[in-house]
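hiii so um. not sure if this is the right channel but i have a protein structure encoded as tokens and i wanna go backwards to a sequence. like what aa goes where. can anyone help
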């Protein structure tokens, strides 16, 4: 079980003090989370075998300078919010591409809804909360139909009358995916175990094919895919393992603790894949 000391360490990493639940405090927590805790899949490629239990995810974040992907990030954040007294529920969701919402995609993502945090702008007090989308939300969205601007990005949220799920989130046009379908009925993290095994072990899984780290701040998203880093108008291709690890630490606060040979193997694979892609692009040009 996660202990009070784990949550104290979690808040320390976020740089946020514990305070009573409110819309403003929720926004502070969310901003700090996506700015300081990276969305990352290094644990898959380093064969660390992480699960999605909330207590395990809390420990990785609180004590190991690590992050995780959607199930781990939102699972841990939900545990932290519960510890702080928020009314938070987990929900089946499905991230989809430009082809549109897809029933088969449901359970590939876990979303959060927080209630009981009314504000002047959102008197109903219900919020769509999601720290597990990488390049998307910087702050929670009011759980109502609307278009919302956050820095350079614009998002949509709408109730679904006839379609997939009960709510639909539309990502910014520059985002890495098109949208998310969200089911209104609450669920538990165990709902996602089968999908998590597929995500982290199948050769067909995009998570297992490409290693990534992502984070969001007020100015937009920073993304590392393989050895290519992009943020705003910047693009860098890491030329060495040392440069790659320094970038992970400096840009994402991510410090890998796996044995050095495992990290070296991963870097070699990442750089070889990139070079093969470059060669293929040059041949087809």
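sure thing!! here u go:
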């Amino acid at each position: 079980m996660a202990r009070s000391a784990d949550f104290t360490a979690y808040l320390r990493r976020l740089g946020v003090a514990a305070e009573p639940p409110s819309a403003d405090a929720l926004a502070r927590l969310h901003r700090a989370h996506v700015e300081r805790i990276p969305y990352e899949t290094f644990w898959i490629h380093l064969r660390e075998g992480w699960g999605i239990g909330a207590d395990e995810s809390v420990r990785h974040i609180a004590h190991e300078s690590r992050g995780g992907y959607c199930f781990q990030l939102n699972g841990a954040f939900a545990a932290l919010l519960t510890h702080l007294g928020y009314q938070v529920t987990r929900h089946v969701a499905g991230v989809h591409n430009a082809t549109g919402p897809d029933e088969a995609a449901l359970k590939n993502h876990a979303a959060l809804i927080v209630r009981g945090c009314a504000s002047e702008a959102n008197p109903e007090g219900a919020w769509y909360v999601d720290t597990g989308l990488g390049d998307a939300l910087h702050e929670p969205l009011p759980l109502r139909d609307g278009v919302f601007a956050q820095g350079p990005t614009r998002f949509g949220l709408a109730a679904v009358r006839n379609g997939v799920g009960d709510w639909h989130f539309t990502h910014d046009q520059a985002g890495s995916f098109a949208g998310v379908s969200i089911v209104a009925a609450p669920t538990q993290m165990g709902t996602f175990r089968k999908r998590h095994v597929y995500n982290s072990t199948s050769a067909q899984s995009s998570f297992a094919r490409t290693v990534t780290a992502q984070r969001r701040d007020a100015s937009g998203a920073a993304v590392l895919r393989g050895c290519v880093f992009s943020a705003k108008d910047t693009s860098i291709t890491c030329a060495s393992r040392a440069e790659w690890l320094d970038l992970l630490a400096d840009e994402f606060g991510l410090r890998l603790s796996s044995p050095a040979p495992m990290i070296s193997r991963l870097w070699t694979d990442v750089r070889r894949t990139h070079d093969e892609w470059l060669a293929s692009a040059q041949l087809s040009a």
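oh and The mean pLDDT is 96.
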